[in-house]
Design a protein that fits this description.
The structure is a single chain. This protein is mainly alpha-helical. The chain has a domain of 33 residues. 47% of the residues lie in helices and 0% in strands.
Amino acid sequence: MGSGDTTNTYHTLMAMAPASWTADDLFELHWLMKRGLGQMLCGAEAPKCGACPVKQMCAKAGVGHSAEVLAWRPRG
């Protein structure tokens, strides 16, 4: 999944979702990914890449807390 390529990312992720999932299911997954991955595993100061279930798809896996990662983190 490329950084900034939202169309490609959308199609890649939707291909992984079960066809039976509703919009509510997708919203719950989105929330869990932001909370579970974004806040608990992928913190800017001390990312836990080894425990991340999507590290194989992450361009930043293993980079650590360098300035590049801090700049890459989404605002919010």
